[in-house]
Structure formats: C-alpha cells, structure tokens
C-alpha cells in the first residue's frame, strides 16, 4: 500500500504527462469509511491499470478535504498511523487542481465516487467525468447516473463494497494490512456489528469474517472498535469551531453536523452557542442541524438540535418533519433556548431511536426543503 501511495504522490508533479487521470474521490466529511474506501478502491483501480497495461493512466486517491482539516479527523489520523500510513503519503483536495485537469483538452479526466453519489454545486463541473459510483446510501432519485457503472447497495459500510470488489478482482493483494484497514471502518459504521443499532447486513459480516481469515487478524473486535472509537471521541485538541466542521454534510442548503459527543454536552462547552451563531452567519445561512452521539457506555445515546436565527423560515417545517418521520426518531424535548438579544433559537431533543442516523435524516430534510420550495 505504501508503495502505491508513494507512486501516486510522485505523479502529482507530472500529471500533465499522462493522457488519462483517474481520481478516486471520497465524500466531503472524509470520515474513516470514506478515507479507507478511497485508498483501497484507488489501489484496485491502479491494479486494473497494470493488468490491462494502461501505461498512460495515473490513479490518484483524493481525500476530499483541505490538508489543514486532516487533523480534525482524529480517528482517521489514528488509524492511518496505526497502519504506517503517514499524512505525507496522502493527497488532499487543495493539492490538486481538478478544474485545470478538466479543462485540459489533452487529458481525459475520470472520476470514481466512493461513499457518496451526489455532487455539491461547486463540483458540478465534474459531472461528465464521473465513470463509476460506489456507495452504501439509499438511491437519491435526483442522481440516477445513467450510463455509468453504479454499485449502490444498502450495507453498513462502503468499505464492505470496496472489499468485495477487491476480493473479486485482486484477492492476491489482500494481506494483513489491507484486511485490517478495511475491517476498521466496517466495525465503526456498524457499531461493532451491534444488533441493537442494526446497521450490519449479512454482507458486512461475511466480508469481515473473510478479511479476518485471509489477513490472520486479531479476532478481538471489541479491542479494535474501542481503539478507533476512543480516537474518534478524543476532542481534547479540538475547539468548538473544530467540532462543528469535523463531520459536516449539507443537503439542500441545510448543514447537518455530527458530534462525537452528545449535543447537550457540547452546549456545556464555553462559547458553543456563539460558535453556532458565527457558523451560520459565516455561511450566509439561517439554520444548522446538530446531531450528538455517545457510545462511551454499553448503551448508545443520541440527541439532535436545531439551531436557527430569528429570520429563519424553515425551522418549524424541519421540526415537524423530524417529529412525524417514519420510522419514528422517538424524539423527546429536552430544552429550548431563546436568545432575543442575539436573535437565535435552539431546540434540543433526545433521540430514543438510536438506529436512525444522519443517513436516514438527510432525505427527510431534502424532501422537506423540496416541498417548501414548491409551495
């Protein structure tokens, strides 16, 4: 793996010597699943190129964040170091000019999307370059991707699909390092195959067992899960501003951030409300949804807050949609904060149905915004 990553990094200085450049692009949160899926799928694409004698092809695994934000991804930093992958072997979004590559008529730019299947507005220019999509989210009807190779399956982790692809195409390269790299995000995304959380599918379990067998891995999954989760929960070096952008996604102009702690505990941190206000003002928006998660005990706890400025027109509709969603989030009001001086409002709910994650909440928000716009 290190040899491939070194080769890809070296290619950056001579990209225009290649006729085809294939970028494997993870999602904008660059969480563990996205980061590992990006690396392993890029390795698979690289091996495809060697097998097919495609000497004019360069393959680049691209972390879809600026390099300066990498330190915020504490579990990714930990897990990469654990597998001897230093940050200087990784390629970040601000280290390559995709627009220049797209506009160069002598280069064919090819994009493989992993762990997402839609494009934000700022990446719409890449639309025609997409050749393949691998994702474990429900199909977004707005993004059918006709004419591309599409691998969308409802499994716990995108790494499961990437691992299956590697088993099918290049099983000979799956050693202990690659097996361990792939197992980590599957364990994290399925909460250690928890039956209560109910995110693991039969395919996730089959792939983990196959990885453990072929890689002769330590079978103590609890130890692996706890190490990664502890790294993910380590916010000792992060500010409240860092926490808001650490795991952030946006849908229909509404940002949804997931915290490694409960929102009620985040609100106890100094400057948290001011940070929320500054965030929405800096983005020129009026609302943000904040989801909290606590896995420090044997039980899973979730809560969710809607922070909005007084000028916001969507809060009421979004809250109604969340309260009436099916399956139910089982929301119980914890508290509401009205700050008339600062002109903002925050409503905090306990989420008793811990099986519902951001993946299920995203389409709820999308549908709510779409309905509101049609009115």
TrEMBL record:
Belongs to the PPase class C family. Prune subfamily. SMART domains: DHHA2 (SM01131). One of its GO terms (cellular component) is cytoplasm. Residues 225-369 form the DHHA2 domain. This is Protein prune. GO terms for molecular function: exopolyphosphatase activity. It comes from Apis cerana cerana. It comes from the Eukaryota. InterPro entries: DHH_sf, DHHA2, DHHA2_dom_sf.
